[in-house]
Amino acid sequence: MTELAERGGGREVAVAGQEHDDLPLVAHDILEVLREELADSGLYRRYVDQYVAMWPGRHRRLVSALNTEDHEAFRDAVLSVKTSAGMLGALRLEQLALEMEDAVRKQRMERVRTLLTELEICGQLTTEQLRDELAGPA
Asked: Domain spanning 25-135: which superfamily?
């Protein structure tokens, strides 16, 4: 299998072709690395809060681009989801976005629509878990 990403001390955490259901919504070790890298709990909290606040807009961009068949806008929106999810350790969301990219590339639009529904649910669950993370100790 091909390596997709390395995080947290070089440990492989997401692999192309891996089932997304096997991945955590949020990998707390990756989130902890981000917290340490930002070195300011207020900045970390604002960053995570901003991600949570931006999720609905990211999802709307995907839906809109798919509905208007704007493939360039869709690729841009899915890349945004994939990249931002990876930075926060939202591994399941990142994997779904990777699968969506692959389905678009292969012009499997029915699969893209199915993945979009899964991505919406996963995004909601992920943002809930991140909100819980923010509600925890600073």
From this structure: HPT domain (1.20.120.160)
